[in-house]
Structures
1.
Amino acid sequence: MSASRIAVLISGSGTNLQALIDARGEGRMAGDIVLVLCNNPEAFGLQRAAYAGIPTRVINHRDFASREDYDRVLISALEDCQADLVVLAGYMRILSPLFVRHFEGRLINIHPSLLPKYPGLHTHQRAIEADDREHGATVHFVTEELDGGPPILQGRLRIDDSDEQQLAQRVQREIEHRIYPQAVDWFVRGRLSFREQHAYLDGELIPATGIQWSNENPPT
Ligand code: GRF
């Protein structure tokens, strides 16, 4: 295994963190989650990590004068735990270029839309308002462009409800919690890589919208 130490950054509920913990526990995902880092002392995800016996660290951004100062401390916490892969799982802060450059190629995020559609916030509402028939989530490498790094894995569902919260929950349950462990597993096993702003699986260029995931026929 080429990259076994995983650090997860969270800010809130941590259902994606839970999906990673469960996948690891059930042998569906390789690697070890060695640290959960959080900017919000109240985040429920911290309890999920503690319950799973994973070390946690809270570094509150309110204690820092600038984003760069904060990100420098984050970088050293992640270097201290020798993270091979940094996984953003509902981490609600914009990362400085300093941070992104430091971890480029080993920094991934999950975004609740069919990227390149709807980067940024309120993705579910935007998809409903646009009368889209489909919506979903995308795992991607993080680059300096917000939600603009190369997609890795993307899952979609039909929009059959017009309630933003219900749709968000379906996207999490049916897509996010399935595709994120898969993408992390690929990385840890050395199958996923990032070169010159592109993502590769098993040495092959991943298409611009990511590998398409379906529940009936999930990629392995
Ligand atoms: C997820 O919907 C993810 O797509 C977005 O933030 C949310 C985090 O949820 N980046 P959780 O904390 O994992 O429950």
Note: The helical segments are 15-25, 45-51, 67-80, 97-103, 123-129, 164-188.
2.
Amino acid sequence: MIIDSFGRRFQNLRVSLTAACNYACTYCVPDGKKLQAQSAELDGEEMARAVSLLVDSAGISRLRITGGEPLISPKFDNFLRGVTNLGLTDIAVTTNGQFLSRKVPVMQETGLKRVNVSLDTLDASSFRSIARSGDLATVLDGIDQACAAGIKVKVNMVPMKTANEDQVMPLLKYCLERGIELRFIELMNMGHLKRNQMYEREFIGMEDLLSLIRNEFEVRKADAPLDSTSVRFEIPDRGRFGIIANESEPFCRTCTRLRLSSNGHLYGCLSNSKNYSIRHLLHEPYHIAINELQGVLRNAMASKQRLAFTGETTVMKFIGG
Ligand code: SAM
């Protein structure tokens, strides 16, 4: 197992099942083009084999299936079935929720317990201008159906100054009323945002967000696990929410994440475009693959930031947000 001088080791794997997405969110998809996959994406079996090898060689115990949009991939059902037998302690899915209701049955069948739904607004018109696709009512119905099926739902919102700051309180209240934890993700300076003014114009930091919420609620800091990426807060008698404060309270020193892109490249850090292909290993005999992975994992670990997210031109949807 690879452990670096900060004591970091890989425990959490994020797999981008496909880079294709049925949305084209303004902060994620550079040119507004939907449904663009990577060239030469791994098939479902190769993906499941990669996860299995990483469980054995890197000590991965938790898996998040993401993308792109994982629920539009024809690989989703079989991949989910395949990884449920690997002895992982936790499997979760991150989705925009558009196809959630139709995937609830396979999630139930495989015993999937957790889903994060990305939802930046409850207003149908700003929904269309941020996601540039999709239907808000369908997403809300998907959330209801997942909750009714006993799947634990969290909602992820990227708050932005001009695009959806007015939706912070409505979304927080929507989540509190349903016992759903809302997690605000500070806008990250990635992909095309590195090359235009959007990041500077739209970024809302943790303190500004907390001031906004404190106008209506008492907010207390709550405990969070050591390697948690979110700072947790409690609103007494109402519920909890979290802030993934990439900028305001970086979590690089305790980051245990590893990412596998849909075309079979490992990334040790969101803030570093260095990546290492493992495609050629997926058809090797087990002992050869495991052996070679050690070198790859050492390189991936060395590419982790030491202190803070510094921004990167890599696009989130390609490497698994
Ligand atoms: N399609 C799925 C979804 O919408 O949840 C999974 C992929 S999406 C890339 C995963 C997460 O990354 C979403 O919650 C999205 O809001 C977030 N994201 C993408 N670009 C981001 C950025 N520049 N800053 C912060 N969050 C970002």
Note: The longest helix spans residues 286-302.
3.
Amino acid sequence: MKLIIAIVQDQDSPSLVQDLTEKEFRVTKLASTGGFLKAGNTTLLIGVEDDKVNDVISVIEENCKTREITTSLLTVTMPGDTYIPYPLEVKVGGATVFVLDVEKHVRV
Ligand code: 2BA
């Protein structure tokens, strides 16, 4: 068995969770925050048999879009210690996916 951890954008998560559950994959949705943008995103935990990993990744690919986000994360220091926000374009997504081996899975 494998545990798929997928970090996706909040906008993509409702359709992705719906597609996964319709295809009878079990999924747990966690609210998370990206370290770089410090904006909310969604982390999904999906436990599947080894031969289903690629099916899950295909569903993720179908639902998760790449988006350009403009953020004012960078600041420019001006004389007199004035900080001016500097717009920064960042490409986010479609999804960041980790596939981990599961040593043991128990449902009681
Ligand atoms: P964030 O950390 O908020 O990153 C958002 C986007 O900012 C990233 O999109 C990437 O395009 C950019 N970015 C991140 N760190 C950067 C840096 N040090 N310098 C320049 N640009 C940077 P994605 O790569 O699609 O990542 C989306 C979200 O997935 C991330 O949100 C984070 O929550 C998660 N993530 C991505 N890679 C990860 C990793 N290796 N481990 C854990 N979480 C990861």
Note: The radius of gyration is 18 Å.
